[in-house]
Amino acid sequence: MRMLPLLLLASTVVLAEDTKAVDAKALVLAARDALDKQQGYHLAAKGNYALGDPNTAMTYGAETIVKGDLAWSKEEQMGIPTETFRKGTKIIFKDATDGEWKDTQESGGLPTGGLQDPKIVLKLLDKTSDTAEVAGEEKVRDIDCIRVALHPKPEVLKDFLASVGIPDLGLDFSKGKIEFQLWVGKEDKFFHRMALKGELEMATAEEDPPQPGAEKMEPVKVMATIEVELFDYNKNLEFEIPDKVKKLLGL
Description:
18% helix, 40% strand, alpha+beta
């Protein structure tokens, strides 16, 4: 998963009276339905992930424009820029080595746009909305929002990733924790920010009992965070699609 450290508020949060009465699950599902109906909006993502040592975290950033079932993204991961176009689950990317447009699935890539694919996010919300609780009030881009915390069980996340074609990458989902937060506009009921933070361990293979005196191997921890802001709802957003990409997407 592509992933940024979140500034979490203290556990003691003072809520306005109108916010105290909010049904968190109903709010999440209303925002989910609103997102599903949008024909155009902008996303800005940033994040990082690390294996073992958090001081060696690799950073990630992306800009995405969604317009109906089409989307354009410009990403940078470990300093390497990537440009992609998506139609449904079909993703075309610009190969950094030769500058050619290629199909991710034909090149052995994943058939998904991760958290930047709104359909993926909507499916994840279906699986986790029962755990929703109101966690605070904050502004996102000057919009008053209700912050909702979700508490998905790691094994639920593992099954979800498998259902959308994302491999578990050798992670042990029986150990670790996942934090998922959403910021929903008080008035418009749109998602304005999403944040995911996880700490898991790499799965270890079954081995014979260690030899006497042998040093015990500690499991490798995987730490990842991602924060996505959504804006420009109901705007007529445009992006230019190269002829080669149009052909590969069947446009």
